[in-house]
């Protein structure tokens, strides 16, 4: 199960359920599922590449992160796409 990002918890606490009507945990999990920021940060730091894109996959449990990794020596940079859990 996905963890709620800190910003989602702060926003949910500031808005509160009375301002937007009754809400349940499922509403907040959808918000968390759309956040691939931390997954993208992990991939960039592990590969040393440059982030090209990061988006949630259709299953809502993983992120598809694409980075551009520099080649060694005279090799061209290569595009690497990785699926990582959120």
Sequence-ordered SSE layout with sheet pairings:
Layout: H1 6-20, H2 25-33, H3 37-47, E1 50-56, E2 62-69, E3 78-85
Descriptive report:
The chain is an alpha+beta fold and about 90 residues long. It is built from three helices and three strands. Strands 1-2-3 form a three-stranded antiparallel beta sheet, covered by helices on one side. A hairpin with an 8-residue loop joins β2 (about 60-70) and β3.
N-to-C span: 9 Å
Q: Whole-number radius of gyration?
A: 17 Å
The helix/strand series, from N terminus to C terminus, equals HHHEEE
For the record, the count of structural domains works out to 2
**For the report, how would you describe the main beta sheet?**
3 strands, antiparallel
Q: Give the low-pLDDT segments.
A: 28-33
Strand content: 25-35%
Measured as a percent range, the helix fraction is 40-55%
DSSP helical segment count? 3
Number of strands: 3
Global outline: elongated
Question: Could you say which structural class the secondary elements and strand pairing correspond to?
Answer: alpha+beta
């Amino acid at each position: 199960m996905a963890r709620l990002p800190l910003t989602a918890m702060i926003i949910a606490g500031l808005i509160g359920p009375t301002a937007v009507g009754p809400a349940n945990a499922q509403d907040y999990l959808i918000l968390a599922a759309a956040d691939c920021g931390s997954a993208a940060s992990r991939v960039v730091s592990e590969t040393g590449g440059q982030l090209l894109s990061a988006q949630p996959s259709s299953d809502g449990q993983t992120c598809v992160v694409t980075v551009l990794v520099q080649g060694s020596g005279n090799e061209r940079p290569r595009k690497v796409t990785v699926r990582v859990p959120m």
